[in-house]
Every structure is written in C-alpha cells, then in structure tokens.
Amino acid sequence: MAASRKSVIKDEPNRRAEIVRAASRLFAEKGYAATTIRDIAKAVDMQSGSPFYHFKTKHDMLKAVVLEGMEIITGAVGAAAAQGGTPRDVFDAMLLAHLEQLLAEDGRHFAATLLHEGRHLDPAALAELIEHKDRYEALWQKAMRDLKRAGDIADDSHVTRLFLMGALNWTVQWYHPNGGRTVKQIARQLSQLLLLPRTR
Amino acid sequence: MAASRKSVIKDEPNRRAEIVRAASRLFAEKGYAATTIRDIAKAVDMQSGSPFYHFKTKHDMLKAVVLEGMEIITGAVGAAAAQGGTPRDVFDAMLLAHLEQLLAEDGRHFAATLLHEGRHLDPAALAELIEHKDRYEALWQKAMRDLKRAGDIADDSHVTRLFLMGALNWTVQWYHPNGGRTVKQIARQLSQLLLLPRTR
DNA sequence: CCTACCGATCGGTAGG
DNA sequence: CCTACCGATCGGTAGG
C-alpha cells in the first residue's frame, strides 16, 4: 500500500510529456531516422517496448514534437505581434520572441526538430505543419507591410521575408549560449540590418 | 570478344561518380540515415552489395558527397572573389555564384547534403568539413571588410555575416526552379537588402 | 560487379 | 508499463 504511493500523487500524468521532451532532444541531435525507440526509452528510464504505451508509432512521436514546437513559437511570436505599439516596436518584439524560443535551453530542440525533420512526417501531419507554417509566416508578412507603410523598411516583398526567415532560423546552426552574444543583442543587430535608420 | 567491347571504351571510369551523384540526391531527399545502400544501388542499376566495390562504407559515400559539394561551392565563389573589381562587384558576383551552385539542378543535392547531413560524418571527416567551411566563410568576411572600407555596408561584423549565410543557405528550403524568380533576381534583391544605396 | 548470405538492430506487439 | 519476442531490414562480406 505504501509502495503504491510513489506514483499516485503526481508522477504518472507527465510521462508522456517526458517522452516528447526526450524525443525532441534526440531528434534534434541525431535526426529522426537515426534515433531509436530504444534511445528514447533509455532517456526516460523505460524498457524498449514501453514508449508504445503512450504513442502508437514513432511517427506519432515526431508529430507531437513538431506540433509542440510550432505552437511554442507561434504562441510567443503571436503574442508579440498582438501587443500593439509602432510597427517598429512590434517587429522588434517579434524578432526577440522568435529567437528566444529558437535558442532557449528548453525550446531549441523542438525548434531544431521542426526545422529539419519535417520531411519524415507522414503526409497528413506534413500538410498540417505546412498549414501552421503558412499562417505563421503571414504574421511576419503583415508586420513587414506595416513597417513599409510607416517608412521603416525599404522592401516588404516575399523574398525579403524569406531572407529574414533564413537569417532567423539559421541562428540554430551557430548560436551558442556561452558564445559571448546575448539573444537580445542578436535580435537588435538583425533589426538594425533590416530597418532603415530612424529619421530625425 | 565482341562482348567485352561494351565496357572498354568509356563505361567503367565513372560508375563511382554515378554512385556519388545518386547518393547526393537520395541523401538530400530522404536524409543520410533513411537512405539505404539498396536505394543507392537501385538508382544506378546495381545489386545491393556492389556499391561496396567502390566505397568501403556508407559513411565514405557521405564524405565523398559532402566534400564534393564543398568544393563545388568554394570553387565557384572563390573564382568570383578573385575576379577583381569594386568591392560591390565582387560581392555581387559572390552572391550569384553561391546561389547558382546551391540552386542549380546539378549541384543542389550536393549542397543540401552538405548543409543538413554533416552531423552523420565520422569525427575526422567532420573536422575536415569544418576546416573547409571556416576557410569559405573567411572569404565572405574579407569581402564584407572591403565593402565596409568602401562605405557600401553599414556593419561588417561576424553576426552580420552569419545573417547573410542564413539568408543564402535558407533559399534551399524555398526556391523552386519554376517559381517565377530567377536566381539572378534573388541575388540582386539580397544585395539591395544588405548594401547601402549608392551615393550619387 | 553479382550471388548468396550473415549478424545486428529496428519498430512494433501479445500477454500479462 | 515490463517481459519476451517476431519479422523485416540493414550495412557489410566472402567468394567468385
């Protein structure tokens, strides 16, 4: 009776979340295909068959990681976009939000999996991801339109937005937490690169 | 005797190159880990064991693809950098050269493998790749230094170079040959985004 | 370069 | 969630 105590209070509910978290790290580090169910099980101290109690297939684990990653970023950047202020303020807040989620200790494995392992999703989940992504990028396109109207940017074309996405998402490849640059500094430099100098 | 004619004149010498080419496409499309020796063999009409006549291991195939990709890009951009002209002309030529190799029908699978599958290299080959990459990025850093001295760019810091690399390399994710934009147009737009308007 | 094959590993499952 | 296991597939090899 005392023995059952161990898992009664609060253990059980987030074994699934632990699996997703461990999977995100392994998928980010080794890639989906090179990550083994046994790797994931070991990372959360389970036996090799046990993750299938929580997920029907390995693909479902990837889907959970990718969709959670998408929601983390969309949530943070959407909040920044909705906060109000000048187009410049909004844009700067969005840059910072995107980079913080992408580079933070806890979110970066979700982001890296999202950016690099999408092709291993089954067609239905891939379609869902693309839909999310399109909505997300529309947020940026709108922010750039507002900047353009306010005279803060020279060009708000789709190609410019794609260059921006590249500059942002590529940070995953080179950023190191102890690399001497804060996320805030990186965001500010990107803002200065893209926006026209303030008039006055 | 007549039968031996078939492979005497010019068949044999480039079976290895055919394997590398097929491997680059498959690694780019499915990823290294999800690509099977049998996939590669089938793509060049061989039996499943035969690629090992040309390569000792699957890792060696990846190494060949990645190093060839690196050489293709370094060669093209290095030539552009060495051609002379104003810092602006040199930079524009480098942008175009990088994008042409990255997005061309024949080179893009090498580039995509290079950009995404490097982590599957063995440590020695990975070190070699990083060395190549550092030399390559130094080329860009120098071009930016020259731009800065000529007053053509506001900031030539390392971070700006990394943003540039991101904008460039991310094109692999969105460019489509029939997408209505030529590589030349893309290069020009990126140049306009980064460089200051010409004085006069 | 093919034939024939091997040991290892993998995703997944039945039954408890 | 564990135990015990299965069929399939994989990288790689011997021998020709």
Give an overview in words.
The structure is a homodimer of 200-residue chains. Chain A is mainly alpha-helical. Helix content of chain A is 69%, strand content 0%. Chain A has a domain of 137 residues: Tetracycline Repressor, domain 2 (Orthogonal Bundle), CATH 1.10.357. Chain A is elongated. Chain A binds a DNA duplex (16 and 16 nucleotides) through helix 4.
Instruction: State the distance separating the first and last CA atoms of chain A.
Output: 74 Å
CATH architecture heading of the domain at 58-194 in chain A: Orthogonal Bundle
> Largest interface, counted with CB-CB under 8 A?
A-B, 33 and 33 residues
* Count of alpha and pi helical runs of chain A: 10
Let me know the average pLDDT of chain A.
93
Shape of chain A: elongated
Question: What's the quick description here?
Answer:
The first copy, chain A, is an all-alpha fold and 200 residues long. Chain A has helices at 2-5, 15-30, 37-43, 51-54, 58-82, 87-103, 108-116, 123-149, 158-174, 183-194. In chain A, helix 2 packs across helix 7 (108-116), helix 5 runs antiparallel to helix 6 (87-103) and helix 5 packs across helix 7 (108-116).
